[in-house]
Amino acid sequence: MTRISSHILEFRTEYDPDMPVCMLSYYARILRAYKLPVYPIVVYLRQRNACIEAAYNPSIDGRDVIAFKYEVVKIRELPSAKIFENRFYGLYLLTPLMADSGLAGMTVGA
Fold it and tell me: Which domain of life is it from (predicted)?
């Protein structure tokens, strides 16, 4: 079993249709340079109702070329109580963006 030694974290406010290729590129560069297995994660800071792609699976003439997957985390869907209960200190600043915080829909007006 391979032990995960690191993570690739990409923070985004908007969906980017090129994200699957970007994540594969990040993964390949780290693997080539450092020979480290990494776990890729895209963190979306704003709500998006549409399904967000979490894989890159191109094929040519019906034959798979590569199967690459990464995790998609939507901050709004995370329960802020769990963040505090588990003492995920690095996520504390993101809790106002979570749906159960009561602040997720607020914006600064002019």
Answer: Archaea
